[in-house]
Amino acid sequence: MWIADNWKDYEVLATSGGEKLERWGDYILVRPDPQVIWDTPHTHAGWKKKNGHYHRSNKGGGEWEFFNLPDEWSIQYKDLTFNLKPFKFKHTGLFPEQAVNWDWFSSIIKESDRPLKILNLFAYTGGATLAATKAGASVTHVDASKGMVQWAKENAVASGLGDAPIRWLVDDCVKFVEREIRRGNHYDGIIMDPPSYGRGPKGEIWKIEESIFPFIELTTQLLTEDSKFLLINSYTTGLQPAVLSYMINTAIVSKFGGSVEANEIGLPVAEDGLVLPCGASGRWTK
After folding, report:
1. For residue 130, what are the contacts with CB-CB under 8 A and spacing of at least 6?
2. Which terminus of the chain has a lower count of CB atoms within 10 Å, N or C?
3. DSSP strand E in the chain: where?
């Protein structure tokens, strides 16, 4: 497993009964996690000192309960700053486990003998975009949500990257890739973090099990013999690391060579020293 264990402003304090107890900077949140199918005593003091608790509803969705939690605050990862706020569907605007991937591709970018041009698809609030830019790349950031792109821009300013070479685009990722192919554009690295289910700006439906492999095949047309890497993240339990590896090998290695690694990613749990699984990632490098 690839473990995001370099955080100082974030940690999973404990897990129990379908929930995780997390410290986000100075604040403690309790959020549901479908991977936490065990039930252990709430011995960690943080369970009684929480600032926010997301209660899942039996009818789907849920709602927040707050205890002295600000509307917005920020945390840092190395030299990056992220603005956080709780919003619907339990999220805060950041997936901390992705830091293990940020470190991985940042090393590739820094060690390259030339400036790299990176495409970040389904780019959310910009964690990968900022990490790649800070490492020295120019980045095209694409997400279908105008609000998420604006949030990512604010994170860039907070991280001292307000004037960095980032192209911000609100667009359907599939349609954007198709246009880039027609334009003859290419990238040195591609990052994608597709949702399990989603809709584009004009109602385009995305179901990952049906859409992901054709999309990977499509994006290979944006790679060249000199491209350095491709990263795919998945939170869908049906897409195991071996599935990601198989897809990347089939779509990319057959054309460009290189090598593939795939693994679960996770976060260490402070209370017991175990690791909470947080999905899977597949990596192609050349």
Report:
1. 80, 152, 155, 156, 159, 161
2. N
3. 2-3, 10-16, 19-24, 27-32, 52-56, 62-66, 73-77, 80-84, 117-121, 138-143, 166-170, 189-192, 197-199, 205-207, 229-234, 259-268, 275-285
Q: Which fold has domain 2-71+80-84?
A: Immunoglobulin-like (2.60.40)
Provide block-wise average pLDDT over 10 residues at a time, the chain (286 residues): 98 97 98 95 96 90 94 97 92 97 98 97 97 98 95 98 98 94 98 81 71 94 97 83 96 96 98 96 97
Residues shown for the chain: 286
Task: Return d(Cα 108, Cα 104) in angstroms, integer.
Answer: 7
pLDDT at 48: 96
Give me the pLDDT at residue 59, please: 79
CATH number at 96-285:
3.40.50.150
pLDDT (0 to 100) of residue 207:
76
Q: Angle of helix 208-219 relative to helix 241-248, nearest 10 degrees?
A: 30
Q: Which residues pair with 190 in a beta bridge?
A: 119, 230
pLDDT for 200? 62
Domain residue spans of the chain = 2-71+80-84, 96-285
Under 8 Å between Cβ of 270 and 11 = yes
| C-alpha dihedral sign at 171, 172, 175, 178 | positive
pTM: 0.94
Measuring CA to CA, which residue among 42, 30, 76, 11 is closest to residue 269? 11
